[in-house]
Every structure is written in structure tokens, then in C-alpha cells.
């Protein structure tokens, strides 16, 4: 036998009332007498009546669903952000749909297009390949609530939640300099991303303050954000072929950092004796690696919380939103064994 949930029509028929009367009674409308409300509510409870959320949402022209766009769900940084988003979504009775671009511009267009058909708002972190933002601008112009997080678009006026990337990079580079490392390589995602622009600025500012002229040969970019080990391997091989090879690496993302560590381990390169390593990472295991890994850790969960709060507030606003917030959260520097003071500073 097929399960058939109890409807307002069933309750109305059983109590010999109109559907509109039952509906108003269940909504505690002032138009219905207390006596009728008690009868309707008691009967609804006895037959385990539950409102149909799909029907309610259709009536309100809302899905109570948020779309999330990240580069890779398996990335510890983004998975922690998603946890933060879901915690707020649950509190506010919203569902979430999570999609990943895998750093592909074409895939980003596809997932955003699909999400826009069925969600009330979008939380977006750009892919490494994204340079043309027309697909997002179009949705924004049509009034779709959008909040950008981490990898943002400066030119679109919208809510944004980010980490202080300049500060994180400046702190990491300064730490290396203070520990005797002067030839510091920079490995980032593609330079079009907002996070890489700011992290490079922090890196360069720390070198400049120390009186060190940056070398272009030390600055490298991963087209796919280090998602593939081979692209990180190729970049480190290039760095090691330099006549004046680096004595330290500052990496700009979770995947790049862990793949650098993997490369050094696979090639019997001792950290920090042969080369030091520090990078952005939210991977919990970095403190248990051998040697333990110095990192810049971002407030990923809090980024998710703030982004979701801003989006839901915008979705539920009774008036169009024209004033937007930009929330900047401080990262934290964890100093561990991979960047111990250099033994030979000649």
C-alpha cells in the first residue's frame, strides 16, 4: 500500500469544515474561534498531520535552499567552511546544495547555472580558472542574492567574507626571514585570484622591509591550485634547477602546501635542513607530520558562519539590499619544526 500523508483536505472532510477554515486554524489566525482551533489542532495531532514543506515553499515562491560553490569539497579548508554554513542553515531551516568546480571555469558556469534554477541564494568561491565573471554578473543583476567568500570578485557589489590574506602572508614570510631564510620562493594558485594577489603583496612587503629584492624566478603559480601533485612537482623541480636555489618555500593553499611536503618526503629532502616550508593549510594533521608543519590557518568555520548569516539575512530582507558588508577575519600563524631557525645562515 502506498503511503499517503494526511492533508488539510482530509482534515476538513473529517471535521466537516472548509479547507480555508482548517488552514487558518492551523496558522492560529484571529479569524477563527478558539473552540474551532482547539478541535482542528487536536485532530491534526491525532492523525500525525505535518505541513507539506514543498507546497509551503511554492506558495512563498521560495525553496529554503542555499547553493554552495567551492573548488573542491575534499579540501579541508572548504569542508570546514561548509560545516560553518550548514550550522547556520540548519538553525534557520534552510537546506544546502553543495557543488564543486574542481578549479574549472566551464564547470563553474554549469554548476552555478543549475543551482540558480532551484535555490534562494548562492555562496560562491571562484575557481582558479575564472577570469570572465559574466555568468555571475548576470545573476547578480537579476537580483539573485549572492555572497562571495575566500576567492571573491572585487568588482561586484555584494557581501564578502574573507581572511586577511595580506597579513597571513606577511607574517609567514617575516617568520622565515627572522629564522635566517633569505631566498624564499612563493608558490601560489593562478594570479587572477583575489587571495593570491593579496598573499603575494604580503610576501613582497615582508621582503621589501627586510631589504631583499624579490626574484621573479622564485615566484611560481599552479594553474589548478595544486590540486594535481604533478603540477607542484614540476614547479619544485624548476626551483631546484636554479643556480641560486631557494632555501625556503612559502605556499599559498592547502593543496600546494601538502603536495610540497609530499614532494620533499618522496625525494628525501630534509625539512628544514635542506629547505624550510610554511604555507596556508587548515589540515588538522599538519601538527602530527614528521617534521611538524608550520602553517597559516584560516578561520574557515567562522567564514562559513558569517557568509551564511549574510546570505540568509539578504534572502529574507523585505526590501532590496544595496548596502553590503565585507568581513575580514584574521588568520593564525602556527610555528612548528619545518621552519626552525636555519643552522647555516651564510
Automatic annotation (TrEMBL):
GO terms for molecular function: DNA-binding transcription activator activity; sigma factor activity; transcription cis-regulatory region binding. Residues 7-50 form the HTH cro/C1-type domain. It holds the Pfam family Peripla_BP_1. Residues 6-60 form the HTH lacI-type domain. PROSITE patterns: HTH_CROC1, HTH_LACI_2, SIGMA54_1. Gene3D superfamilies: 3.40.50.2300, lambda repressor-like DNA-binding domains (1.10.260.40). Keywords: DNA-binding, Transcription, Transcription regulation. It comes from the Bacteria. The keyword Transcription regulation applies. PANTHER family: HTH-TYPE TRANSCRIPTIONAL REGULATOR GALS (PTHR30146:SF109), LACI-RELATED TRANSCRIPTIONAL REPRESSOR (PTHR30146). This is LacI family transcriptional regulator. It comes from Arachidicoccus soli.
